[in-house]
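thread: overnight batch results

M.L. [08:02]
morning all. the overnight job finished for the chain we discussed friday. pasting input first so we're all looking at the same thing
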Amino acid sequence: MIPTAIQIVRLTEALPDDFEALRNEASAEAYGFIEGLREEWLAGRYGGEDDRFAAFAAFHEGELAGIGAVTPDPYDPEPDLLRVRHVYVRPLHRGAGIGRTLAAALIQQGLALASRLSLRAAGPQAAAFWEANGFRPDSGGTRRSHLLTH
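M.L. [08:03]
and the structure it wrote out:
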């Protein structure tokens, strides 16, 4: 069951107002991949007509709590493969189901367009999280730690 205080929004016009605070928190935890999302956003990759590039924000009780994206896999550009990327939940919002809710939206978007999803887990905790959400360890691709097959 999804808590009603969590709202998932597909980003099309702009990054959320509190994105800079989220980016700073990610940076403080040495998660540089949020900078990659910012750079891709500024380059115009999201919000266009290509549904394979989709960014989602998670709001918890109205506050930006997390962010994530689905894109073509930049390391393994196969037509049936998309990649879950740039997923981050702010420390104060962890443990409230935000990650699971955001992951479900990313997986749903990705599997609607491709039969396989890849990702690279940032560490053992992230690996356990993604495995609990259906991904399996996989080293068959470039810079990939996990794969989910539809």
